[in-house]
Amino acid sequence: MDERLAEEGEAPRLTIKRKMVLDVDNLFPMSSKVDPSKCRDEYLADAVKPYEKIVEEVERVVRRVHGSSLKGATGNMTVEEILFREMEMHDEDSDSDPKKHKKVISEEAKAAALDIMDILQIRYDDLIQDMRRVCINFQLEQLKFRMVVLREMWPGDPSVLPYRMFGWSVEDYFRRFEQPNTLYIDVMEMELSNAEMECLKFRMDLDEVLRLIDSILVDIKNNRDLCRYSMSDMLDTKIDIEEVLNRPRAKLLHEHDEMTLDLFQYKSGQRSAQADQKRRNLKALQVQQDYYDPIERRYLVNWTYSTMEQVNYSDDQQCQLLLDELNNVTKLIKEENYVFQCSNQKYYATIEEYKNRIYETQMTYDVDLETAENNVQITRNKLQKAKDDLKFYKEQIKVFHEKIAHVRELIAMEEAAEIARVAKLAESLLAGPKKGKGKDKAKGKGKGKDKK
User: Fold this and answer.
1) Nearest alpha-carbon partner for 113 in 141, 142, 85, 133
2) Cβ count near 200 (within 10 Å)
3) Where do the segments described as Disordered lie (predicted)?
4) Whether residue 100 is found in the same domain as residue 62
């Protein structure tokens, strides 16, 4: 069909366009759930409609393209129609007179081409932005999927942790610090082992990473500013809550000390060495209660925990020795069973291999024997054919000699006839001039008589 169109003078670009449309339909088939009454353009328009973004620059250029500047001689033609008309005129001129110079493109077509370039540039910029968002979205989705798979590999459920313990958010920190006591931490340490606690902590970390990824995905899908939304969540996780809480307290204590000193000096009216000594003693006592006592209590608690862990470690070592011995025995039994199974499988495999090799050797021998017999028969047939051909060609030698002699006789006769014809022609040519001279003499005598 394409060849017929080309012979009739149809433009080749229409055929190329039709092929491109067919390739697009094959590469991106429509879903079976789509209404069959809708074409591809209607379906894509309905699907993309919620995500369309109006670009003022494109509207301005389109209005300028379809404005009055392109009307008049071209009527209400669009930019594409103007360019298509110029291309057709150029093709007609080239076909009618190949030696004619190329037609100059009109000013309307030049303006339309510039406007189309502006539109394409804006479209390419938007397309690059959309492709960038799609690529980032794809990478984040892949990362999220891997993080979810990694999270599910670890045991435990972070939802059992009270007050979102191990959470990164500042709100979670404040919610925990607002509690009147830390009894829930002691309960968790008693109910869960260190390994389980580490698993829950790791899973909570993965949940927080997934929360940040979801925040970035929402910003990318909604085309929002990352610095105003998801980036604030990331900065929220970097805040050191202990520093935030301790800094105002130290400042308040310093102000309290200064105000107490000022009040004491104001009431006493003077600063005595005894008052300064009392103030220094109170300050030292305050430092002792605020700093040294908590350190001492933590040391005692840690020493108690350390002693208990040492006892537990000693018991675990004894149990571990028994478990190791039991595991060694179990391992030996499994190894013996495994060796026995491997030996049997190896024997069976070796026997089957030998059977297969014998069968393959037999089949190869049969095939080679059959091939050899066929080759022998073919050689015999060729030898017999060669003998028959030799006999036939020997018989043909005599016939060839007779034909050669006959042809030579014919050639000799033709040469003799040709020689006779040439000789006769030469005699006729020699006799012709003599007769001409006699006629001229007779004519001269007749003219003389007439004059007399």
Assistant:
1) 85
2) 22
3) 432-452
4) yes
Backbone angles phi, psi at 73, to 5 degrees: -65, -30
Please indicate, yes or no, whether residues 125 and 182 belong to a single structural domain of this protein. no
Torsion of CA 225, 228, 231, 233, to 10 degrees: -130
The amino acid at 87: M
Q: Indicate yes or no: pTM above 0.70.
A: no
How far CA 317 is from CA of 18, 250, 305, 324, 397, in Å, comes to 80, 47, 18, 10, 112
Does 127 lie in the same domain as 162? no
Range of the domain at 118: 53-137
Number of domains comprising the chain: 2
> Each residue of 86-124: pLDDT tens digit?
555 555 555 455 444 444 455 555 555 556 677 777 777
CB 147 within 8 A of CB 209: yes
Asked, for residue 367, whether it belongs to a domain, the answer is no
Residue 167 lies inside a defined structural domain of this protein: yes
Which amino acid type is present at position 371?
T
For the stretch 365-423, pLDDT in tens is: 999 999 999 999 999 999 999 999 888 888 888 888 888 989 999 999 999 889 988 88
